[in-house]
Design brief:
CATH architecture of the largest domain: Ribbon
CATH superfamily of the largest domain: Heat shock protein DnaJ, cysteine-rich domain
CATH topology of the largest domain: Chaperone, DNAj Protein, Chain A
Largest sheet: 4 strands, mixed
Strand order of the largest sheet: 10-11-15-14
Strand content: 25-35%
Helix content: 10-25%
Distance between the termini: 86 Å
Radius of gyration: 37 Å
Oligomer: single chain
Length: about 375
């Protein structure tokens, strides 16, 4: 039978090494022998388990004390029974601080657990704004109904300071710990105390307004700012504006406001750009024309249609779109030209069009050439 190597020797450290030295040595050797770095290498796999076992013992103060006193021949036997089988540690975890592998090893020996910080429930409110307010930004408010701190007891749940006692079941910690043995290991499980619902306190003389809960349901007005250019579906977070905990036993939750945006009369949105269809007459396309329409920023939007434009052409107006949420400046406005088709033309107008047909229509013998030219231009990307 092969004699077990000294744990300090395995990690390459002295017997007076600090906790930091032990962790540093373990990280270095675990990276070196990790199975992900040495696939199908039985020797590296064995060394990796050996390094893990050494670290599991030496990183635990009580286990290290016993090892320093008795070595491998401790009176209570090897804590890993017939042999240490290793644990699954991600290779990436070995390169990051606070990765959590310490807690994996501490579970072998019933490591200490900290009390979980309680926090109230988060709230989600959906709020609708118009398109102009999205464009320019706005100050908004909304009335919601939620649990708030009871004014009668200031959230304590008791009529007086003497009406609250520490929970005897959990000694005021709010958490209870249970330990069970799984094979050679001890496993700890921590849960909320059932007697005090995790608060660590028991109300013996409850407040009449909230019946000992410390909270009451009430309407309240929330006020918040919507920055320019916000996307629909964005959630604003108001820290600490959610529901309080029972009996002031922790921090309040957060309030999330999900923004919905009404449609505009003619604009559509594409990220920070605005798109619109713009109907114009045949005369405007042929000769060109200048239009001014009201815009969301308060300044007229000038649309210059070049002579000879065609239906389906687009005109880009730079820097008049929506404020960019990432980066600087504003997007663009893209105008799509559409041919306006008049309705209910008089006979006089129709006769005038007949007189112009020779000048503006395509003759029968030119149809095929025109079709070929359009197809060729389209394939070549020519307007």
């Amino acid at each position: 039978m092969t004699e077990k190597r000294d744990y300090y020797e395995i990690l390459g450290i002295s017997r007076d090494a600090s906790d930091s030295d032990i962790k540093k040595a373990f990280r270095s050797l675990a990276r070196k022998y990790h199975p992900d770095k040495n696939p199908d290498d039985e020797e590296s796999e064995a060394r990796f388990k050996e390094v893990q076992e050494a670290y599991a013992i030496l990183s635990n103060k009580e286990q290290r004390r016993k090892y320093d006193t008795f070595g491998h021949n401790r009176p209570d036997g090897n804590p890993f029974g017939s042999g240490f089988q290793g644990v699954n540690i991600n290779f990436e975890d070995l390169f990051s601080e606070g990765s959590g592998f310490d807690s994996i090893f501490s579970q072998f020996f019933g490591g200490n657990s900290r009390r979980r910080e309680r926090r109230g429930n988060d709230l989600l409110v959906r709020h609708r704004i118009n398109f102009e307010d999205m464009f320019n930004g706005s100050e908004e408010e909304s009335v919601i109904e939620s649990l708030v701190e009871c004014d009668g007891c200031l959230g304590s749940g008791a009529k007086s300071m003497d009406g609250v006692t520490s929970c005897n079941t959990c000694d005021g910690r709010g958490r209870i710990t249970q330990t069970q043995r799984i094979g050679p290991f001890l496993q700890e499980s921590v849960s909320d105390c059932p007697n005090c619902a995790g608060t660590g306190r028991v109300v013996t003389d409850p407040c009449s307004s909230c019946r000992g809960d410390g909270r009451v349901k009430r309407e309240r007005t929330i006020r918040f700012s919507v920055p320019p250019g916000m996307m629909a579906g964005t959630r604003l977070r108001m820290q600490g504006q959610g529901e309080p905990t029972t009996g002031n036993s922790g921090l309040p939750g957060h309030l999330y406001i999900e923004i919905a945006i009404d449609d505009h009369d003619w604009f559509e949105r594409s990220d920070s750009d605005l798109l619109m269809a713009f109907p114009v007459g045949f005369h405007d396309l042929v000769k060109g024309r200048r239009f001014e329409i009201p815009h969301l920023d308060g300044k007229p939007l000038v649309i210059e249609i070049p002579a000879g434009s065609k239906p389906g052409d687009t005109i880009d107006i730079r820097g008049r779109g929506i404020t960019k949420t990432r980066g600087r400046g504003r997007g663009d406005v893209t105008v799509l030209l559409k041919l306006h088709m008049p309705q209910n033309l008089t006979q006089e107008v129709l006769s005038s069009l007949d007189d112009l047909s020779d000048s503006i229509d395509i003759s029968n013998h030119e149809i095929e050439d025109s079709i070929r030219r359009e197809a060729r231009n389209r394939r070549m990307g020519v307007d």
